[in-house]
Amino acid sequence: MTQLTLQAIRHVGFEDLGSFEAPLRAAGYQIEYIDAAERDLSQLDPLAADLLVVLGGPIGVYDHDRYPLLCAELELLRARLAADKPTLGICLGAQLMAAALGSTVYPGPAKEIGWSTLELAASDYQPLAALRDIAVLHWHGDTFDLPEGCTLLASTPLCRQQAFARGQNVLGLQFHPEVRGDRFEHWLLGHASELASSGIDPVTLRHDAKRYACALEQSGAIMLGAWLTKLKH
C-alpha cells in the first residue's frame, strides 16, 4: 500500500480524529497532529500533506483579534484550497474553510448541541450517503454562508449549512461524525462551562451518546472511506 501523509490541525486535545483514525490508517495515511496552540502555522507548507484535516474547537473564525493563530490558519487554507489539495474540515475546520473560500462566518440563531439526523441534499455527488438516518453529534453556535462554487450536502432545521463540497477534494462538515462514544466524557468535561451557560444537561447528552455513538462510528467510517477513494492527489 502506498504511504500517504496526513496533517491534522488540532485546537483542543480531545477534539481529535477520533473514530476516523483507524480507517485513515487503514487507507494508508501516516497521521501527524499539528497542535495549533504549539506550532507556528505560518511556517507550515500548505501543500505538503496528501490530506489536511482541520478539526473543531471552541473559538469562532471572527475571533482572530483575540486568537491570532486563526489568521495563519486562514492563509494556509487559502493557499491549499486554491491548489485544490484534498482537505477536510470538521466544525470550526469547516467554518475556517468557508471563510478561506470567501464566505462569512457568523453566530447562528441558537446553539445546536446534541444528537440528531441530517437532511441530505439530493445531489449528483453525495459523499454523506452512509449517514442517512444516522444521528450525528452537533456542537456549534456559528454558521456560515455556502461558499461560491460549492455544493450543499446536508442541513438541519436549525442550521442549513451542515456540509458542503467543492468537487471531490474539498469537504466541510459542520457536525461531528468523528466522535467516539468511549471518549465522549472528555467532551462533556471540556465543554462543561458552555453546557452550563447554555442550559444544556450533560446527562441527556451522555445518554444519547450511549444510544447513538456506536452506529455513528460505523457509518462515519463508511462515509469517510467512500470519500477517500474519490480523492485526486
Tell me briefly what this model is.
This protein is an alpha/beta fold and 233 residues long. It has helices spanning 21-26, 69-82, 92-100, 184-190, 192-198, 202-229; strands at residues 4-10, 29-35, 51-54, 87-90, 105-116, 119-120, 136-144, 151-155, 163-166, 170-173.
The main β sheet shows up as: 8 strands, mixed
Determine the CATH topology: Rossmann fold
Per CATH, the class reads Alpha Beta
| Strand proportion | 15-25%
Please state the average pLDDT score: 97
- Helical stretch count? 6
Superfamily (CATH H level) name: Class I glutamine amidotransferase (GATase) domain
Class by helix and strand content? alpha/beta
Poorly predicted ranges:
none
Assembly form of the protein: single chain
Beta strands, count: 10
Termini Cα gap: 15 Å
Strand order of the main beta sheet, please?
2-1-3-4-10-9-8-6
Number of domains: 1
Task: Name a few traits of the molecule.
single chain, 233 residues, alpha/beta, Rossmann fold, eight-stranded mixed beta sheet, two-stranded antiparallel ribbon, 6 helices, 25% strand, globular
